[in-house]
Amino acid sequence: MPKSTSAVTLFIPCLIDSMYPEVAHATVRLLRKLGIGLSYPAGQTCCGQPAFNAGYWKEARVAAEHFISVFADAETVICPSGSCVSMVRNHYPELFKDSPRLLKMAQGIGSRTFELTQFLVDVPGVEDVGARFTGTVTYHDSCHLLRGIGVRDQPRRLIQGVKGAHFVEMKDSDYCCGFGGAFSVKYPGISTAMLESKINNIIASGAHAVVGCDMGCLMNIEGMLSRMGSSVRTMHIAQLLDGSPHSQSGGA
Amino acid sequence: MNVLRAFRRRAAIALEDRELNDNIRRSTGMTLAKRRRLAAADPDYDELREKVAAIRRESLERRTELLAEATRQLTAAGVQVHTAATAEEARRLVAEIATRHEARLVVKGKSMISEEIELTPLLQQRGLEVLETDLGEFIVQLLGQPPSHITAPALHLNRRQVGRVFSDKLGADYTEIPEELTEIARRYLRAKFLEADIGISGGNFIVAETGTLALVENEGNIGLGTTLPRVHIAITGIEKIVPRLDDLAPLLRILPLNATGQRAAGYASLLNGPAPPPSADDPPTHGPQEMHVIFLDNGRTHLARSRQADILRCLRCGSCLNICPIFRHLGGHAYGSVYPAAMGVLLSPWLLPIPHKGARVWRGAAVSGPGHHPGNSLADVCALCAACDEICPAMIPLSDLILSAREDKGRTAPLMQRAAFRLFGGFTKHPRLFAFAGRCLRGGLRHLPARLLAALSPAWSRGRALPPIPDKSCSETLKREHPTRLR
């Protein structure tokens, strides 16, 4: 395990900030344990994805410009969400294609912004973070992490590095859980049907915990598992790697 | 007509239909598995896909020139070429040809464009018998339904349902053995091919440099329907023209692989004009005496100038339907268009409405052409999972196009929604306001009665519990513990 990496700048997605603060704290503890210095710019808000995905690009541009100004000087930005990183990397350039100055800044920040597991495995090359877990773990590929920024192996390697965790693949792990942000609110019936398929695959895997890298998906998955009274736990990967997981369904 | 409301109604019905769900998932799952095996076994697949994407990009960029060249070559080969600006014009052209030949029976090969222009009802009104000869199309025609998938029209039905259709509508003895069902259709259809006056087909591709019409199929029905009747009419979109004959090799390889998971289609016909008039010197040739090609625009030129232009590169393989988790739960009928899922959501709002259906024509043409209303788009019916981007053989950035269609649509959204997002945008640049909004959200979720929250979004709450609501966001603690070097 490398002792120290140059300081990284943390971007906490608004969903985690507002609804799952324990995931942010787990991320911080994990980075600290790995000797990675970090800073947290107080002015951060949201990457703008909710507006962008809903078709409100002008409003998304406001958020994106703010993001760019907050993180302009950051050498490396780390974010415990594939979806937000995909927004910054893939969609900011589209938002600023008519403004050469901002486009250049957006592309610069995009290339320096990493999802948590992508950073750990690709940059300092960590695969064993020294975490422990007792039980069987399966992994849900979130769409934007997998297809947006091409992260498939990194979280799996990290999970396999957790002592005591037995990793199993579920069927169709890369199949959308039905969340899709506003999609699940606009079309809850279709979303629920998609979620049912996901839940069936999670349960069939026999895992004690389903781990993911995006709280949007996990909130959705947890919502149904908890409604069903299932004992399968949902965990953000930062919580698994932190090694002292707080059960979300237990109210942290 | 409210496209969204109609969609919601049909989707709710489809979700309740367990048999439908099972049929669609089994059928799309089988095709996807076959496709995946073939693509994985082909070391050149990525290269092939790049090549196909390049051909289709060129088709789109040079569309005007290619249409002129194809028209010249086809005409030189003795084909009568027509262009139709609208669905109505295309239907009239077909009807006129039928009248001129005093046709009574028309046999059709599977053609989505004929579904797009709703050709069959018009010909039937004029007293013609119109028969679908593709097995899947034949089944849905017997049921009076539109196809539910662009390459597998009857994928929403299982063999028991097909057996019942054949016994109810054709008086056949009930069977659910696929070979026997196919035999029933074959016996019924074979006689009709011999009697038919006109054969109608679509066109998978048209080669500009040679004026060749390429048709791909698995049942031989298109081969029969385009050679036995004395007149053949091919209807095709203006976007289906490719520059060179050599382009067909990669296209005819990638299309069946993605459509049905086959290494090659059962049959590929390359048609180069009507049969030459009989002469004493040459042996007699088979083929129609008269061949027509109708190039249909129907909103495509406007689409080509829009931000969703790239959807015109589509090969109509149907793989974005098979992979779409929404399509796999609903099937095609819920979309209310013959083009469902990603490709359909992008294409459908641009196609001109058919006047007899009483569709409203929107005339505020800033972001669109006549007939196109971005508000009529089902671009919201997408979870942005991007599985379609990954599978599309023409490498169309489907989810990005859907996002751009949402932006076009946003301009027509209700005032309240626009105001809410305006507020959101404003909050994002004021961290304190943003944090305050977060506190309000948590407060609301914690203190409002659970029944009220459930009532606000009943269908969400039926399946899912709300997460436990934390007291505090993490930003306050983090700010204190990790003072930033940055702004």
How would the blueprint of this fold be written?
The complex is a heterodimer of chains A (252) and B (487).
Chain A: E1 5-10, H1 14-19, H2 21-33, E2 36-39, H3 49-53, H4 57-71, E3 77-79, H5 82-95, H6 100-112, E4 113-115, H7 116-122, E5 132-139, H8 143-149, H9 153-160, E6 163-168, H10 182-186, H11 188-204, E7 209-212, H12 215-228, E8 233-236, H13 237-242
Parallel strand pairs in A: 1-2, 1-3, 3-4, 5-6, 5-7, 7-8
Helix pairs in contact in A: 5-6, 5-8, 7-9, 11-12
Chain B: H1 3-16, H2 18-41, H3 45-61, H4 63-76, E1 80-84, H5 87-100, E2 105-108, H6 112-116, H7 119-125, E3 129-132, H8 135-143, H9 159-170, H10 178-195, E4 198-201, E5 205-207, E6 212-217, H11 221-227, E7 231-237, E8 241-242, H12 248-260, E9 267-271, E10 290-296, H13 300-304, H14 319-322, H15 327-330, H16 341-347, H17 387-391, H18 398-410, H19 415-428, H20 431-447, H21 450-456, H22 458-463, H23 475-481
Parallel strand pairs in B: 1-10, 2-3, 2-4, 4-7, 5-8, 7-10
Antiparallel strand pairs in B: 5-6, 6-9
Helix pairs in contact in B: 2-12, 9-10, 16-18
